[in-house]
Amino acid sequence: MDVSQLSEKQKAVLKQFREAVKDCQLPNPEDAYLARWLIARDFDLIKAEKMLRNSLEWRRHHKIDAIRDDFKPPEVLKKYFSASLVGRDKMQSPLWITRYGMSDMKGILRSTKKRDFVMYVVYLVETSIWRVMSDPKKYKRVPDAIVQTTIIFDLEGLSMQHVTNKQAVDAAIKIIQIYEANFPECLSRVFVINAPKVFSIGYPILKPFIHERTRNKIKIFGHDAKQWKAAILAEVDPEELPACYGGTMTDPDGNPNCLTILNMGGEVPKSYYFSGKPDTANKKSLSISSGSKEHLEFKVERSGDILKWNFHSEESDIGFAVYRKQGSELIPVVPHDRVDCQMSAEEGEIDCGETGVYVVEFDNNFSYLRSKKIWYSIKVEPGSMIRENGNGFDSL
After folding, report:
1. What residue spans of 5-74 are helical by DSSP H?
2. Residue 282 carries which DSSP code?
3. Poorest-confidence range of 142-151, 260-269, 384-393?
């Protein structure tokens, strides 16, 4: 849809919304961009403004506006995570195919951090939006049209390993939460096809995190290819769809799977796996009881000094955050996040713009069954030393 389809009352709210957020630096100045937030919150001006401002802060914190240039996807994700832009739907929106069932999620998450996997999906979403905005002729885009995407989510090959792997489930939940909070109304339709019986175990885990508006855009099919092909072709022209999914598109050699444009997934070679446990040399250890958290304090005496960390857990993930003390308050500097750091150490640094006491938090509140042992090296260094050697990053 585009803004011209809004009612007069909705257009009036949109005008109010633009005035309310005129102090914000928007990644897209169009009315269509602002309309997405209003639609997602049923034109409740206060809720839409809160949602937009939260998202803009997320974009700033994680440098999303520069992700297409700065993020370098790990090779294992490019090769073995199936997510491909293959064509357009009948509304001239991007058509993506994800062969999730044939993606070796266990292998992928043994070869790359959950944060990098989540960032890769954000990178793909941002790239898709950018392609539409930068090539309006190809996507027949009219000004102030809301950019949306159609996705075919192929579950052929889905097994218990996919739905019981904690890392994969946690990553899926994180992606859904980020998408719902930061890309409202970017979805046109999702076709879930070849859903096996095991899908009935996995979907209820994810469903509570999916907004009702999004759930209403999802069509779920089993292995009846005649049924799902007909549903897809009602919204996608045959020439825009690989022959294996009911279209007419093939590789130059006639292959109906379109291997030249469609990532088929596949088993991740063990050569990509993280090797062994992270090194404990020059690190201190800290045990964190189940249902508790630990705070470590570091004094920063010069503005611009760097707080640098390297830590890993002996097993499972741990909550991590950095705060700055201000009287009796703790001001968030690095937002709280659960970090999977049992196979590869988590490294990072921040430029301390203000002097004072900084608090590093390790949080095991979410675990009521077991304690966690953390190995860490955390220190404050002069800013000039670090700036010559590299750049910091923030955790998702």
Report:
1. 8-20, 31-40, 45-62, 67-70
2. T
3. 384-393
